[in-house]
Task: inverse folding
């Protein structure tokens, strides 16, 4: 049986051409996707930044308190031994 599929050229330049073609397609697709991005407003950026800063401070205080409590408990446990 004869193979009806057409063979692509496998030369060096064919591979180089496909490589640069894929790079070009990547950049075209990237530009296309960047046009679809909806960027946040300045007010949203400031609000989100404040929320993140508050959560970081609260988490830091919570970890500091837990560290102090567990450290105190461990010191009391070791003193008793």
Result:
């Amino acid at each position: 049986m004869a193979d009806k599929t057409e063979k692509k050229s496998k030369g060096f330049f064919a591979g180089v051409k496909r490589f640069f073609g894929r790079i070009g397609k990547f950049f075209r697709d990237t530009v296309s996707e960047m046009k679809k991005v909806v960027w946040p407003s300045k007010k949203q950026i400031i609000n989100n930044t404040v929320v993140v800063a508050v959560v970081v401070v609260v988490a830091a205080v919570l970890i500091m308190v837990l560290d102090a409590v567990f450290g105190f408990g461990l010191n009391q446990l070791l003193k008793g031994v």
Summary: The longest helix spans residues 42-80.
